[in-house]
Sequence to fold (154 residues):
Amino acid sequence: MYWVIGNEPDIHNETAATYSSEFNTLYDAMKAVDSSIKIGGGPTAWCDSSFLTTFLEDSGSRVDFLDLHFYPGNDTESQLLAAPEALSTDLSDARTLINTYVPGGASSIAIRVGEYNLSWVDRRVRLHRRRLGGGRRHPGPHPGSRRRRPGLGH
Fold:
C-alpha cells in the first residue's frame, strides 16, 4: 500500500521545514500501525529544488519515495514536444538531490510521478472556442490530453 503525505505544500504557503516536521510525525505514526506501507513525500507542484533539499535533509531518513508532480507549460506545440525531456531532467535532478542529501539511503528511495498532465490544443480550436464563448463544447478531455496514470515511477 502506497501513501503520500500532503499535496503541493509549496503553493499553499507551507514552508519545507514545517512540511517536513509534519511529514515525520505522520510517517512515524503510520509506520507504527503498519510497517509494510510505503510513504512518499515532497509532493511539490513542480521539482522545487530548494523545497526538496530541505525536505530530504529533514526527512530523508524516513521517506520511502519522492512524489513529483509534473505540469509543464503547454501553450505551444513545441512546449508540448519538449515535455518528455523536461520530465527526464526533473527526474534526474530529483535523483541528484536524493544522492546528495541522503547518501546512505539513496538507493532505497524511489521516485514516483504522482501527478502529471500534458495537453495541447491547436490554435484554430482555441479561436473557435473563443468565438463560442470560451467553454469546452465536447465531452471528455481536451484533444491530445494525457491523464494521470497511477504508478508512473522512476
Observations:
- The chain has one domain: 2-131.
- The chain is about 40% helix and 15% strand.
- The helical segments are 16-33, 49-59, 77-101, 123-131.
- Residues 6 and 43 are 7 Å apart (CA to CA).
